[in-house]
Amino acid sequence: MTMRDIILRFFIGGTVVSFFAILGDIFRPKTFAGLFGAAPSVALATLGLTIASHGRAYAAAEARSMLAGAAAFFFYVCIVSFVLMRYRPPTWKPTLGFMPVWFIAAFGLWALFLR
Amino acid sequence: MSIEINLDSFKTTKPHEYAIRFLFGGLVTATTGLIAKKFGPTVAGLFLAFPAIFPASATLIAKHEKERKQKAGYDGTRRGRAAAAADATGTSLGCLALLVFALIVWRILTTWSPWLVLPVAAITWAGTAILLWHLRRKF
Hints:
Order of helices and strands of chain B: EHHHHHH
Number of domains of chain B: 1
Distance between the termini of chain B: 14 Å
Oligomer: heterodimer
Shape of chain B: globular
Number of helices of chain B: 6
Number of helices of chain A: 6
Shape of chain A: globular
Strand content of chain B: under 5%
Largest sheet of chain B: none
Low-confidence stretches of chain B: none
Order of helices and strands of chain A: HEHHHHH
Mean pLDDT of chain A: 94
Mean pLDDT of chain B: 91
Radius of gyration of chain B: 18 Å
Helix content of chain A: over 70%
Distance between the termini of chain A: 24 Å
Number of strands of chain A: 1
């Protein structure tokens, strides 16, 4: 991967993620806007480039692993949502503090089913 | 409550708040490519569903809601945190739709035209997310 590829990924990723973040800003109610927090923004930015550079089978293998990443995201955000609703701490604390849950769940599922 | 579009957020969101989300999105996308190169597609694929901007977005929502309440003469702290909790609830439904997105791409990418797969998967993500949101509201 060249520096040009990395910069291209950076700008495409930043643009797609920002687009979905803006959608999340403008919609009401907040539960609906929250849907865009789990939009496939990184996947949309990445998979097209991956298909072009490595082919469809390689990108399909990434999508298969994405299932574990999405399940991990679900576990993580359910815990964050519960803690925010139940204890009302400053938002940055559970959103950052529970980030290890994503890593443990994602790599745990990967080790169990995908390795 | 029906779905509404509120363009006031363009006034309340500061340029550096857009920049932070652009930066995180760009970094995660570029890093996913580097992980794929070093560890292969099965590890890199995990990061296609990494909660890249969720912490920043949820924190901004709480901050904006608090500021809005403070302008009206209230403290707004609890209201801001409640707004972030509501946002997280919606994100959990979006995650279930993200599973459907990944499943579709995985199953049909090798047989369908690649330039058709991503739009179909994205539209299915949106449809599933909206359906789940309506079902949650109803029951």
